[in-house]
Structure formats: structure tokens, C-alpha cells
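<instruction>
Derive C-alpha cells from the sequence
<data>
Labelled lines for chain and fold
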Amino acid sequence: MTRRTVVSSLAAAAALPSLGTQAPAKGRLKQSSTLGCFGKELRADLDALCKVAVKVGFKGLDLVGPKEYPVMKRYGLVPTMIYGTRSIPDGINRPEFHDLCEKQVREGIAQAVAEGGPNVILLAGNRRGMPDEQAIENSLAFVNRVKAEAEDKGVTLCLELLNSKVNHKDYQADRTSYGVEICKRSGSPRMKLLYDIYHMQIMEGDIIRTIRDNIQWIGHFHTAGNPGRNELSPTQELYYPAICRAIVDTGYTGWLAHEFTPRGDPMAGLEEAFRACDV
């Protein structure tokens, strides 16, 4: 990353309208962002990225690890989703991966406690021909290995729902009902879903009704525009102001994190996303 690029990025951040000079942010929904939303150039300079995040109005960053924590802390940014299991295809639905997944999740829980992060991510794994019921039983066996520590430390385990139609072929947790069944049977208040709005729009649609009916099992949200997984612009089919109003109206107090790939100027896209979801 060149000095000119860094300076240009910071200048663009400075040019964003201050939230205090527009209508004040409502702040009823806590927002954060994954690093990818900031574009490749800013990702190469975490200090500049954090300055942009604060300028836009975010209070945290999502899907981060130890190398990001010290810089984030200087800017008062919370790690809103910490890595637990790392592999999308080799997840908690198969016993042969449980030992590695357990090590990763326990490390994630320890980081969450140390850094004040609320959530650790779980990934379901690919089907590879496995029936859902067997996958649910295997996943519960894994959750039972780690849930006591999560409960004791006050950290929420979040199983991410992903689409198996476009982005993650054969992923098992590709429907809300699958994830909810694991949460119900776990009997743990610290076992929830990472409900990715983009992914579930592809697989199920009916987003607002599904959120309302299952909010007790949802611990975290991700956003992106559909189709394309890009900005939350008017050119895509999801109307995020209505979705976010529905989330807030349920009494949800967790985080919503943006996870899109910007096609245009990242700073403009982030500001647009923040405003769309600040309801």
C-alpha cells in the first residue's frame, strides 16, 4: 500500500459527513463491520481502517483475531465476532473434526473473555451425503463439549447459516430450521445462530417473518446486498430499513455486522449501509 493510497483513504474518511452534523444516529441497533467491507487498500492499514470505522459510526469489527485486537482497542472498537472453528467444509457435523474444532473454540472463548467480545463463530461443515438428523446429533455432541465453558464465561457460540446454492455448495446449515433445532436441543442459553440475511434470502426469503419467529435463537446478524453480496444499495432486492426495524422491534440487543464486498468507493458503501440499518 503506497503512502498516497493511505493518505487518499484517510482523506476520504475525513470527508464523510460527521454523524453529528447530520440527523443524529438513532443507535437502536449496534452495528459493526467485517474487514472486507473496507476494501483491499484499507485492509492493508488497520490503523486507517479503524479511523474510518469510527468515523462512519461503527462500535466494533467482526470476524477478527489477535493481530487486530491491539489496534482496535486504541479506537474503542469491540471484536463483535471472534473466530472459533475455521473451516466451512470441515465443521462440527463430523466427529473426526471435533478435536480440532474444540481447540479452536476454546481459544476463541479465551480471546472473547480477554478482549470483551460477545460471540465466537461455529461452522457447520459440508453434508458429503450425511442426513440432517445425523448431522444434528453430531453437532450436538460437539456443542456439549464446549457449552459449559461458554456459559461459565458468558460467551455466545453462534452457528453461521450460509447458502448452499450460490456461495457454499453442500453446506449443511443452509436453512434456519436446521440451526434452530441444534439450538433448541442444546438446552444452552449460549448456543445461538449467526443469521446471515444475504444467505437466507437466497435459500428461504421471507426474511422478516423468519426473524420474528426465531429471534430467541438468533445471537448475531450479517448483512449484504442480494444478488451479488455487494453494498446495501437501492439496486439490490433486500430493503434493509424494514428488516432492521423488524429486528429492533423484537427487542434484540445484540450486534448486526456488515459483510459485503464493495463494488464502488468503500467509504461511501459503509456510510450507506450504516444509515440503512440505523432505524
Notes: The first helix runs from residue 3 to 15.
